[in-house]
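Saturday, quiet lab. Running sequence design on the structure tokens for the scaffold JK sent over.
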């Protein structure tokens, strides 16, 4: 069993079923192509000439037109790269914030504690006490 057959059988498709589907698609394409050619052969020369002229004009117009999709396609990669940089930066900073959060909580606890505020109210007394 080849690797292609292994891949096909791993998704539940047998090689015979795939080849039968390809054969059906090819037969359908041949019928459609034959019917389109037959219907075009029934058109008169004036209609065919007008169709060829309109097709040539449409192809020329499409080739020379600068569409918005052509303008913005190069920026798609740039936008994707910027989004990736922002996402990585947020993830990196979130990890750092987790490590510094306990220190910030200690500061908040010190500021919220009434006894610690009393210490700062009598700060000059404690300085004098430390010197003597």
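Result came back. Writing it out in full:
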């Amino acid at each position: 069993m080849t690797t292609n057959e292994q891949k096909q059988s791993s998704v539940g498709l047998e090689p015979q079923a795939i080849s039968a589907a390809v054969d059906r698609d090819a037969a359908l394409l041949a019928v459609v192509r034959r019917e389109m050619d037959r219907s075009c052969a029934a058109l008169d020369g004036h209609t065919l000439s007008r169709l060829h002229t309109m097709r040539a004009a449409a192809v020329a117009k499409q080739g020379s037109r600068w569409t918005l999709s052509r303008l913005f396609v190069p920026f798609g990669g740039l936008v994707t790269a910027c989004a990736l940089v922002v996402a990585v930066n947020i993830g990196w900073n979130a990890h750092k914030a987790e490590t510094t959060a306990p220190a910030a909580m200690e500061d908040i606890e010190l500021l919220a504690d009434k006894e610690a505020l009393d210490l700062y109210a009598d700060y000059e007394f404690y300085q004098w006490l430390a010197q003597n």
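Notes for JK: The mean pLDDT is 77. Residues 68-112 form the longest helix (45 residues). Ask whether to fix the surface positions before the next round.
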